[in-house]
Design a protein that fits this description.
This protein is of the alpha/beta class and 613 residues long. The protein contains 22 helices and 18 strands. The radius of gyration is 27 Å and the shape is globular. Bound molecules: iron/sulfur cluster (2 copies).
Length: 613
């Protein structure tokens, strides 16, 4: 039976019956694509309902839902038209400007409708909002126009974290106090607009999962730095190297359909190499290095009467919290930089020299479970490699560069891999590059609450007692209790240690130390800004729940137990780094590159509070 239709303005007679899909196939037609949008190349979904559009009898329709539509006599079908061009350009401009898919955004409106039915927001009024964006640079970003005013973020910040950086105004919605914000990102994890509900369900049917834009963006979200990394990878002048944190390997697979808690360490080495990174290193290496410096610092304080208890210093949200609310306790903070910053410093000095790479051209990408790490990398003192080379006279004063160039959260890293069409789940595993890639079992447990403490004890005990600990695991320190304690006898002294995770719990311990209470008599206290430690970090894959925290914890614990070497001071590459470059823990060069200072920020926070009152 013949069917007469109009195809792109031309009369065509086809032998039916036919579907729309049949017509496209038989006529070898391609769908219209405006040329000027780079984002098009990143959409990794052949059935994408956002851009695969047809015009049928004057109506723009997504091919994915109309492919099987029977073609009728007289039907007018266009694969290219002024209307299609205009709709596509509008959608792609939205994608380019907001890095957000309009299709996914529409699905999010189900969450908004739910909020309206719960009396939180009036959607008619919401449609009129035109507020400016807010946030705490360079980490957290709030889109008031996408907000449904549920106040979950405000409760998280004020009650759970006990920071008080967010407030609620009936007219304006959620307000930020930038001076108080620790950049922990826990507000992002609580925002329902970032949850996958309808997007997983409908997007799943449409094949959206591999698309970099398939994650719904919350009204609270991280500052998106994926574009900076994409550009650096394309820049022949830049030598991109990468590190990723202990907790990232236990989480990132979730975005690619890998079983919850399954580690993707080797797959990630391979994926990052495929992405174009010239050296694939591991923050686990510098976690071992951190233990050397922080563990020796503890031993030094114990032996020589330094300020105790010593506080851990690898969680930047916690550090900023201490600087804002407990500046009098700053002398308790270990001066050891975090593993992220240590790796940046030795990458652009020791490794740059070994690899004969100009440190000014080295671009260190850091993949972290944490939004506060973006802020940590941007701290003005975090440029010790620049100061090292300046002192050597090989660079000029106006050639400043940071130790870490860009920090991506786990969520952004997933987006970046999807932009490059890399399927993390399917890729064959590889090994890290030499120099800064090897790690011991002590390193992965940095990713969960109690892990830094356990790792430090393994090394500090052996340094002081001259023999290994009887047990390498302290189960009481690894639980999800908010504050945990243990006592470790070392050479006749009972060393008292504590662990607090989540800033609300940190407050309890800090108040006790400040007032000369129970914790003032402790020797070493681990603080983490987020519940569960980094596995529950504000940059982690959403959802981050009790279930996912537990599964990720099991993952990093397994990584520890499966290592033949489980003590940081036995890491062969760390030993080599001291032998060839740093000389010794707490030595002159270590002090210069691996230690830092802190700032009393209480006045800034107090004056911003006064200004808003
Ligand atoms: S990032 Fe943390 S401190 Fe800042 S507003 Fe969010 S929850 Fe509060
Ligand atoms: S930003 Fe998110 S969590 Fe905060 S009030 Fe708006 S919708 Fe709720």
């Amino acid at each position: 039976m013949d069917v007469n239709i109009e195809l792109n303005g031309q009369p065509v007679t086809l032998n039916g019956p036919l579907t729309l899909w049949d017509v496209l196939q038989k006529q070898r037609l391609t769908l219209h694509r405006p040329q000027e949008f780079a984002e098009l190349a990143w959409i990794n979904n052949p059935r994408c309902p956002l851009v695969n559009l047809l015009e049928v009898d004057g109506q723009v329709v997504p091919l994915a839902v109309r492919a099987e539509l029977p073609v009728r006599e007289g039907m007018k079908i266009n694969t290219s038209s002024v209307q299609l061009d205009s709709v596509l350009k509008e959608r792609l401009t939205h994608l380019r400007d907001r890095q957000q898919c309009a299709f996914i955004a529409r699905l999010q409106e189900f969450t908004a409708a739910e909020a309206e039915s719960n009396g939180m927001v009036d959607l008619e009024q919401r449609a009129q909002w035109d507020f400016l964006m807010r946030g705490s640079s360079p980490s957290v970003f709030h889109d008031p126009n996408a907000c449904v005013r549920c106040k979950a973020c405000v409760d998280t910040c004020n009650d759970t974290q006990q920071v008080g950086a967010l407030s609620f105004d009936e007219e304006q919605g959620v307000l930020f106090d930038d001076a108080k914000c620790t950049r922990c990102g826990q507000c992002i994890l609580s925002c329902p607009m970032g949850f996958r509900k309808m997007t997983d369900f409908v997007g799943g049917m449409m094949g959206c999962a591999p698309c970099p834009f398939s994650r719904p963006l919350g009204a609270m979200r991280e500052v998106d730095d994926t574009g900076k990394v994409w550009n650096a990878l394309k820049d022949p002048e830049k030598y991109v190297v990468v590190q990723f944190a202990p907790a990232v390997r236990a989480t990132l697979g979730e975005e690619f359909g890998v079983e919850l808690g399954e580690l993707v360490t080797e797959k990630l080495y391979a994926a990052l190499r495929r992405l174009g990174c010239r050296q694939v290193w591991d923050t686990n290496f510098s976690a071992d290095l951190t233990i050397m410096e922080e563990g020796y610092e503890l031993v030094d304080r114990l032996k020589n009467g330094g300020r105790l208890p010593q506080f851990t210093s690898c969680s930047p949200g916690w550090i900023r919290y201490c600087e804002i609310f407990y500046p009098d306790l700053i002398p308790h903070l270990s001066t050891a930089k975090s593993p992220q910053q240590m790796l940046g410093a030795v990458a652009k000095t020791f490794a740059a020299e070994r690899l004969d790479v100009d440190p000014r051209k080295m671009f260190v990408l850091s993949i972290m479970p944490c939004t506060a790490k973006k802020m940590e990398a941007a701290r003005e003192e975090m440029n010790s490699a620049y100061r090292y080379w300046l002192e050597k006279g090989t660079i000029q004063a106006d050639e400043q560069f940071p130790d870490i160039d860009v920090v991506l959260t786990s969520r952004e890293a997933a987006k970046l891999l999807k932009m490059a069409k890399i399927d993390l789940a399917g890729i064959a595993g590889e090994q890290p590059d030499p120099l800064l890639g090897q790690y011991t079992g002590a390193a992965p447990i940095f990713g969960r609450t109690g892990g830094v403490m356990e790792a430090a004890l393994r090394t500090a005990y052996e340094v002081v007692a001259g023999k290994p600990l009887d047990t390498l695991e302290f189960e009481a320190l690894g639980t999800m209790e908010g504050v945990k304690v243990a006592t470790v006898p070392v050479n006749g002294i009972d060393v008292k240690v504590a662990v607090a995770h989540g800033l609300g719990n940190a407050r309890k311990v800090c108040d006790s130390v400040r007032s000369g209470g129970e914790f003032a008599s402790y020797h070493f206290i681990e603080f983490m800004g987020c519940e569960g430690g980094c596995i529950g970090g504000g940059g982690q894959i959403i959802p981050t729940t009790t279930l996912t925290r537990q599964a990720r914890t099991r993952g990093v614990n397994r990584d520890d137990r499966e290592h033949a070497i489980r003590k940081s001071h036995e890491n062969p590459e760390v030993e080599q780094l001291y032998k060839d470059f740093l000389e010794k823990p707490l030595g002159h060069l270590s002090h210069h590159l691996l230690h830092t200072t802190y700032v009393d920020r209480s006045q800034q926070a107090a004056s911003s509070t006064a200004a808003t009152e």
